[in-house]
Design brief:
This protein is α/β, with parallel strands linked by helices. The chain contains 10 helices and 14 strands. The strands form 2 sheets. Strands 1, 4, 5, 6, 9, 10, 11, 12, 13 and 14 form a 10-stranded mixed sheet that branches. Strands 3-2-7-8 form a 4-stranded mixed sheet. Helix 4 links the parallel strand 9 and strand 10. Helix 9 packs across helix 10. 49% of the residues are buried.
Length: 310
């Protein structure tokens, strides 16, 4: 039994080996495992947690790569199914600007991870896993939307059930639909994490304190609002803290939020107080931002602690 099960997006990321140029001018790319739910599972595994990801790939060489890479990262691939007539997603990024690289997703006609059905779900894991992680992208299309809602109903708001808002505009017909579908999950989870833009989509305000207030009013135990260069706000019913960012030279901003997420999982499972979790997760995200790639860039415990000491 894993300690954490993440559900959702997987893909193969292709990163330019030339920074600061347009995609048309890139000469070579480096391949890495990617996708929010997958990266978060890898990040938590790097910190010593037993993790698994529930997702789907295509019957192709990239699908084989996903399973191999997960094993190498210490993440169980046991719940990675195959969608027979679809291709494993590929994502190109342009390191221009490095802090917020544009992404080009190849997920047509639909990504395999959005074809998850109840038959793909390990229900005994959903019932018993100490931490379950779902994403906003996971409800952007059927049948994954209905499947993820059924998972949350079955989970019955058990501690720890985490929603990563993970809002990507290109996966949605409009903001209103995204807000309605993502917002519907809030009443079924115990922790919500997202940046200011994502909070605007999910709860109707980008103001960190106001967003935290709205989440807590709906029964959330821990609200985490990532504020970019302004740090992170963490709030419970009784306390809240704003933790300043760790200053690093940004190489690639992609994956920083997923590194943060993996550290959040680690801290929740360790029973740390929210303030300590936020400090630790901030450092993890900063380390990923200072490196190229996502899954391959996830830091170890020693690396995070070294940054905190500095």
């Amino acid at each position: 039994m894993p300690e954490a099960l993440t559900i959702g997006r997987v893909g193969v990321d292709l990163y330019p080996e030339q920074s600061g140029v347009r995609l048309a001018e890139v000469r070579t790319f480096a391949k890495s495992l990617g996708g929010t739910a997958t990266n978060v599972a890898v990040a938590a595994a790097r910190l010593g947690r037993r993790t698994a990801v529930l997702t789907k790939v295509g019957p192709d060489g990239f699908g084989d790569y996903v399973r191999i890479a997960l094993r190498e990262f210490g993440v169980s691939p046991d719940h990675v199914a195959t969608a027979p007539n679809l291709q494993t997603p590929v994502v190109f990024c342009e390191l221009n600007p490095p802090a917020d690289p544009p992404l080009l997703f190849y997920r047509a006609p639909i990504a395999p991870d959005l074809t998850l059905t109840p038959a793909d779900v390990p229900w005994e894991v959903v019932d018993d896993v100490p931490l379950l992680w779902v994403t906003g992208t996971g409800v952007s299309a059927e049948p994954a939307r209905g499947t993820q809602h059924e998972v949350l109903r079955r989970r019955a708001r058990r501690t720890h059930t985490v929603l990563d808002i993970d809002y990507r505009p290109m996966f949605w017909p409009d903001v209103g639909t995204a807000g309605r579908e993502i917002g519907a999950m809030i009443d079924h989870v115990t922790v919500v994490v997202g940046n200011r833009t994502e909070m605007q989509v999910a709860v109707g305000t980008a103001d960190p304190d106001a967003a935290a207030d709205r989440l807590l009013a709906r029964g959330i135990q821990l609200a985490v609002v990532k504020r970019g260069a302004d740090g992170v706000l963490v709030a419970t019913e009784s306390e809240r803290w704003t933790v300043p960012p760790c200053r690093v030279e940004v190489v690639c901003g992609l994956g920083a939020g997923d590194g943060f997420g993996g550290a959040l999982i680690h801290g929740l499972l360790a029973g740390w107080d929210p303030h300590r979790i936020a400090i630790y997760a901030n450092a993890a995200g900063a380390l990923v931002a200072s490196r190229l790639a996502c899954a391959d860039a996830m830091p170890t415990t020693a690396e995070i602690e070294n940054l905190l000491c500095e």
